[in-house]
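In this supplementary section we document a worked example of the pipeline. Step one takes a protein sequence of length 332 as its only input; no multiple sequence alignment statistics are reported here. Step two produces a three-dimensional model, which step three serialises into structure tokens for compact storage. The input and output of this example are shown verbatim.
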Amino acid sequence: VRALAVGAVGISSLAVAGVSEQVAAEPVPGFEEPQLVDDLEMAPIDGMWQDDSPVVVGEYVFLFEETEFDVPDSTRLWEYHVPTGALRQVDLSEFATVSTPGVAYFTELVFAAQRDLGGGNTEPVLVKLTPGGVPAVVKVLPIQAEDLAAGSAAVYFSANSDALWESDLTDPGTVELATGLSRITDITPTPRGDGTEILYFQADGPNGQEPYRYDPGVGVTEFDIATGSADSGPEGFHTVFDAAYFRARDAAGVRSLYRLAGTDATLVTPELLQADVDQVIGSGTRIFTAFDNGAGGTELAYYDDTADTLVTVVADFPFVTDGFSFGPSGAL
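The serialised model returned by step three reads:
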């Protein structure tokens, strides 16, 4: 049974190899216990969800549902109003396909689609939706938008994975920032302090799949972690102020934690923590990571951006971790 539920975690805990820590979390008012929103008997939410994570816009929760894979007119969009419990299906009849789950940008849901022109013809568009309203086309694009990311100054996306775009949700404010790359993914914006934003992302350029930084005043800068044409495969970008932390492979194939830091692109330098990094996840100025401790186990640690040090939490797990995340309280 596919169901949409809303709730909050009251207790988060960590208990491994005799080390146990339990942290009480402040419950979210009104959501001490998970509440069922809808199920198969109440609404036809019976397709395959495009994204396991619903998009939250203020008091509203949006969920995309695909009833048939890659078939025109098979995507549904559900809108749930948390305070009243009202559930409605948003009219997507204007669009032949909806290609991305969407992102929340202040009071709007933003997603990409192919608008139906009739006769089997379509055009790629960027779409916004105000909760309770109807979808509105922001701009007709030259090519399909992908990998949407919401910042504080704009919504960012790639066009066919080879051009970087931004949009303030107006037609004239939806513009191309950079082109000439390919396979642009993991777009991660961070405020610069002057009303603009720096973008970190990975892309395939002259030196393979590497991390990139876009600065409005400088342009695009590539960082060749795996020197030459080898791919470093950067992933897990987490920003602290204008710096970015991520996992990548060097030329020898060792996965490590890197930092790109500085006030502009010319001052950015990578710093390598020598370890076979398994995962990277950030919380505030701390970047948690799990890596091979060299003795057949896994070390859990965090890099403190403020103190510029690596702090061990658990020195030796008896197994290699399979992923970790933060609860609503911020507990790991």
